[in-house]
């Protein structure tokens, strides 16, 4: 088995700059995860350079550095903060929806009670007016009844040629 060669200085400089961007959370060419795959994407080199050609000198070094960082990159932290905020907003919206549904149920009961009381008041008024008219010997004029739409299919005019 061949001994691993020393990587070129230019490659080391590119990798260091890419690793620094990943650790700072400012990736230019990758998703920002602290992985060897994203390091290769960020450096714009082929992954096999890290995993096969220089596994002991480069890959092991950056894996250890990423593991030691033990923190999430800035884009990941921002995304998680946004997710947490959205979850809080959703929970608040659900609470508000429940409160509004309860309030709507209360309003429905109140409206039903008021409708019933109104109908009773109208009936009492009509009885009182009828009793008054009977005591005075007056016959009240009844308003004309409104026409009710017929039940069933509405009438359609016949087409021109069928008349």
Index terms:
163 residues, single chain, 0% strand, 67% helix, elongated, mainly alpha
Structure write-up:
There is one protein chain. The chain is an all-alpha fold and 163 residues long. It has 5 helices and no strands. The longest helix has 63 residues, at 74-136. The chain is elongated, with a radius of gyration of 41 Å. The termini are far apart.
Short description:
By secondary structure, the chain is mostly helical.
The number of helical runs is 5
Poorly predicted regions: none
Outline type: elongated
Give helix and strand order, one letter per element, not per position.
HHHHH
Write the layout of secondary structure elements.
Blueprint: H1 9-24, H2 36-43, H3 47-53, H4 55-69, H5 74-136
């Amino acid at each position: 088995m061949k001994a691993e060669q020393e990587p070129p200085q230019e490659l080391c400089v590119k990798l260091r700059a890419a690793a620094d961007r990943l650790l700072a959370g400012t990736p230019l060419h990758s998703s920002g995860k602290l992985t060897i795959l994203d390091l290769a994407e960020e450096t714009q080199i082929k992954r096999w350079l890290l995993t096969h050609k220089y596994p002991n000198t480069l890959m092991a070094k950056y894996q250890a550095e990423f593991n030691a960082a033990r923190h999430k990159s800035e884009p990941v932290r921002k995304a998680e903060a946004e997710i947490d905020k959205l979850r809080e907003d959703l929970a608040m919206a659900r609470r508000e929806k429940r409160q509004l549904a309860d309030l709507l149920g209360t309003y429905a009961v109140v409206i039903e009670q008021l409708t019933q009381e109104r109908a009773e008041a109208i009936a009492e008024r009509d009885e009182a007016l009828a009793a008054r008219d009977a005591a005075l010997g007056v016959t009240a004029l009844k308003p004309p009844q409104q026409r009710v739409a017929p039940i069933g299919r509405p009438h359609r005019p016949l087409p021109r040629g069928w008349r």
